[in-house]
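Appendix B. Chain record.
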Amino acid sequence: MARVAFIGLGVMGYPMAGHLSRAGHTITVYNRTTSRAEMWVREYGGRAAPSPADAARGAEIVFACVGRDADVEAVTRGHDGAFQAMEKGSVFVDHTTASAGLARVLAEAAVASGLGFVDAPVSGGEQGAKNGQLTIMCGGRVADYAKAEPVMTAYARQCRLLGGAGAGQLTKMVNQICIAGVVQGLSEGLSFARGAGLDPEAVIEVISKGAAQSWQMENRYKTMLANHFEHGFAVEWMRKDLAICLEEARRNGVSLPVTALVDQFYGEVEKMGGKRWDTSSLFARMEKLRSGGK
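Structure tokens predicted for this chain:
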């Protein structure tokens, strides 16, 4: 069992930290909204800290799952950031989906202070976090990953080191690029089925047994057809991730025309009031187009 800290108790972090507690680790949590941390402690035990630095003090591994690059900077190197208090030899694991460039900068800063750093974005959504079935894509030094991996198994279905610092974030970008195209394709297919007078559910029941099958098809087509878009990862966060993908692609000289187009479509969904809808809400845009914009 390890002494751990968890920074960021949002939709993902809250259950992830819960799995660590249930696994028997000694845990201290920090959340920007104090009441959220206090609620977590009432449910799982442990201790709530007033700052990232206080949470990290004495921890062997410090986990974080926050929002954007700026948030990661704040909880690591900002005022009362975790790096200020971590002991030499301890490891910081960042589960935030952030830029690969930031991961490399933080890894370098960590090494200079005698710390370890692993960028470890996750995939699986809120349900995957609750069920302890996340896929974790990691970048960093082998020794640092080896310290963190046995602890991360508390909430991981799959966990793998894919290269040096930034490799985890780059792999998460591949993940988001693939999801964007699949969800748009599914949205178009469902809208086409309705427009053609077919029973969309019957169609999916057939084609999901063939080459068109995908996780999105299996898990989202019914809620999409019901115009229910309250199932996890929000459009505003997907757009944040796709912006990171597109920026990295420009830097690497890679063309992502479909990803750029889907990002524009998500922008239209936001204008429809769908900023907090889940990513399958691309179907709402398709249905609006099919009904003549009504």
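Further analysis of this model is presented in Appendix C.
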